[in-house]
Design a protein that fits this description.
Blueprint (H helix, E strand, L loop, with lengths): L14 H27 L2 H23 L16 H23 L11 H24 L17 H24 L4 H22 L7 H80 L5 H28 L7 E4 L1 H18 L2 E6 L7 E4 H18 L8 E9 L5 E8 L27 H11 L3 E6 L5 E8 L5
Parallel strand pairs: 2-4
Antiparallel strand pairs: 1-3, 4-5, 5-7, 6-7
Helix pairs in contact: 1-2, 1-7, 2-3, 2-4, 3-4, 3-5, 3-6, 5-6, 6-7, 7-8, 7-9, 9-10, 10-11
């Protein structure tokens, strides 16, 4: 390309409005999508990057109408010879600066102080429009004040080309470096790709070009359009996929909640029915014994008979409670032979959307040919969901490193047990509290109830296994679920 970059091709004035119109709609749609995300999440970083894309879209208008030969030989809006070149300069610095601000602010989770997000969006649009008008006036009315980039409507001033393209390259490369180092989401990844594409476009379209309508000039515009459209397609695809997963997750949660509510109502009715009769007999016999003992000459044998009935009623109540406990014992009907990998994959799919919305990168490593274990699929899946959610909450306030979650299945050295591990690099737990986190009602979280891990350990132990916790080096925690293989025999 370097050999042919300065070859002059046929001048096609219609090429400019065609390409610029496509870029305008691309950046405008992208800004609308980002503004929508801001309205939902309320994060200032999203408002800034949306404003950057809106600025890039609106700058297309004065750039196109002032381009020499498109609508008039010298351009419209009173444009001078340097107007179009400086409008290009301003448009290609505004969006990279917005990307830098987004990268620096996105981990702070700072929300706007305005009560209504729509007010912030309206204020942002007004500021962007005012900035575009100011840049346009400076490039047209103040054309004579700006350094001379163009010798005529086609040739570039080689004396200033180096610093002109150098400034644009510096801002764009800085945006790429900052965004690449602080990327922790799909949007951050593709903004890094976009910054890299901008750097290549500017290298081809400014630093290496000596005239408009050359091979390099045409190639840079086509390359910029292709890169911008690719990012928009990826953003639309990811947004659609995210909403699809979110809708599916909400439906599954609603179904699970309804099933739990039905089960709890059924169990409560059964417990009330089973306990009401012996409890009523105990209360009645207790009252009768009290009245007998309050008389002047109580019949001791009769009182003894009544107290025996009270004791028998207590035994019946205990039998009912033992029966309820047996319902949750390891011999209940829900115990089946299952593959632990299937449970892990099921839990991962259910929680995948929540993890992506929290910008958590998750990795699942499943050992092949794991032996089956005898377990209740629903309860074991609930244990995995609880451990994964706890790990996500532990990483909620992490901003100085990527949020990483690792889920793996393996075997013990003697192949007698299956091991499921959940690792995070969050805030971790103090060494003095590690042994207490499984105690009922003990919690290290300000909003926790302290029963989740206790219930998880009870479920795992009911399956004949163990649930342990240990520090993850250098950050976070590791939770291990150990299930015996011999139960599959």
């Amino acid at each position: 390309m370097a050999l042919f970059k300065d070859i002059q091709l046929t001048r096609v004035d219609a090429f400019v409005p065609i390409v610029q119109t496509a870029i305008f709609f691309n950046d405008l749609i992208t800004s609308v999508l980002l503004y929508s995300q801001f309205v939902i999440a309320g994060y200032l970083a999203l408002l800034i990057i949306a404003s950057g894309y809106l600025f890039s879209a609106l700058m297309v208008i004065p750039y196109t109408v002032t381009f020499p030969g498109v609508f008039a030989s010298a351009g419209l809006l009173g444009a001078g010879l340097q107007s179009t070149a400086w409008l290009y300069f301003f448009s290609h610095t505004g969006l990279p600066l917005a990307v830098i601000a987004y990268a620096l602010l996105k981990d702070t989770k700072g929300r706007t102080s305005l009560k209504r997000p729509a007010n912030a969006v309206a204020l942002s649009i007004l500021i962007v429009i005012a900035t575009v008008i100011g840049a346009t006036l400076l490039s047209t009315v103040g054309d004579f004040l700006l350094p001379k980039i163009m010798l005529d409507s086609v040739r570039v001033n080689l004396n200033v080309r180096t610093w002109y393209g150098g400034v644009l390259q510096f801002v764009t490369v800085l945006a790429f470096v900052v965004m690449f180092l602080r990327r922790r989401s799909v949007l951050g990844l593709w903004l890094s790709v976009m910054c890299f594409a901008w750097a290549l476009e500017l290298l081809l379209g400014t630093t290496l070009v000596t005239a408009r309508f050359s091979v390099g000039w045409y190639g840079s515009r086509i390359f910029a359009l292709a890169a911008a459209i690719t990012v928009l397609i990826v953003l639309l695809t990811e947004t659609t996929t995210l909403y699809a997963h979110l809708a599916l997750s909400v439906a599954r949660r609603r179904q699970a909640r309804e099933m739990r509510q039905t089960s709890m109502e059924t169990m409560a009715a059964s417990i009330a029915h089973e306990i009401r009769q012996p409890l009523a007999a105990v209360m009645l016999n207790t009252e009768a014994a009290t009245e007998m003992l309050s008389s002047h000459a109580p019949d001791i044998e009769e009182v003894r008979s009544v107290l025996i009935d009270v004791a028998q009623g207590g035994h019946r109540i205990r039998e009912v409670i033992d029966g309820i406990r047996d319902m949750f014992g390891k011999e209940r009907h829900g115990m089946v032979l299952l593959d632990p990998n299937d449970v892990v994959q099921d839990a991962s799919r259910l929680i995948d959307t929540d993890l992506r919305m929290q910008e958590i990168s998750s990795a699942v490593f499943l050992r092949s040919n794991l032996p089956k274990v005898r377990a209740d699929r629903g309860q074991l899946r609930q244990v995995m969901l609880n451990l994964i959610l706890n790990a996500a909450e532990a990483m909620h306030d992490i901003t100085n490193r990527p949020r990483l979650l690792r889920i793996a299945t393996d075997m013990t050295q003697d192949n007698s047990d299956v091991v499921i591990t959940v690792e995070d690099n969050g805030t971790g737990v103090d060494g003095k509290n590690i042994d207490r986190i499984f105690e009922p009602f003990f919690t290290t979280k300000s909003t926790g109830t302290g029963v989740g891990l206790a219930v998880c350990r009870s479920i795992v132990e009911a399956h004949g296994g163990q649930l342990t916790a240990s520090p993850n080096i250098p950050f976070g925690m590791i939770f291990r679920v150990v299930l015996p293989v011999q139960q599959a025999a």
